[in-house]
Amino acid sequence: MDDKDVKEKGKGGSVWLRVAVIAVAAALIVGGIFIFQDNSEPQALAGRGEGILEAAQQQSSLMKGAVFTQTVRYDKCGHEVVIRLSDTDKYAGMNHERLAEEFPDWQITSFMPLNVAMEMEMPVFCAEHTVLMSRNGEAGIYRNESGNEMKLVSPLDIELSALGEDKQRELISGMAFSSLGELEAYLENLES
């Protein structure tokens, strides 16, 4: 074996080394592409306007023992009533979408496996008030006894046309009083 054979063998060894380095680099590049592809899904969701947390909430499902809190906001008086539901185990396994179907009138504001919060706005006074209202041109005392609508408790013999326009508008919207006694005092004052 002469010097020329040794040099060629040395060159051949370095060619194999180069091929091995290129193969490893190519594997790292291809592997990196797959890694970034797998992580690109949350960015794609965020790009569509959905946050990662919202996407996770959509995929998660309720567990037994989840706490349900419902908040009812009464537009006419500004009061809120918070209700904690019992017997929620029947909703276990439901995801956000399925639960929304069970509560179509409610807006789900938070959805976690062990905690759900919902809200609803009601265009009436809450049950804490006795309300002087005019409906269909007749005045009466109304109460919210069911939680979602005003019911006539007692009709009143008030000549609405004798009242000024401002008072008539107030009665159409409703005037809330904290007690029946307060409302009666107002009526006595109105008549005098």
Enumerate how many helices there are, as a single number: 5
CATH architecture of the domain at 61-122: Roll
Label the overall shape.
elongated
Oligomer: single chain
Topology record:
Blueprint: H1 3-47, H2 52-59, E1 67-74, E2 80-85, H3 96-102, E3 107-112, E4 115-122, E5 130-135, E6 138-143, E7 151-155, H4 165-173, E8 175-177, H5 180-191
Parallel strand pairs: 1-4
Antiparallel strand pairs: 1-2, 3-4, 5-6, 5-8, 6-7
Q: What this model shows, in words?
A:
The protein is 42% helix and 25% strand. It is α+β, with helices and mostly antiparallel strands and 192 residues long. Among the domains are: 61-122, Ubiquitin-like (UB roll); 130-191, no CATH class. The strands form two sheets. Strands 2-1-4-3 form a four-stranded mixed sheet, with no helix packed on it. Strands 7-6-5-8 form a four-stranded antiparallel sheet. The chain is elongated and about 110 Å long. The termini are far apart. Mean pLDDT is 79; it is low at 1-12 and 33-47.
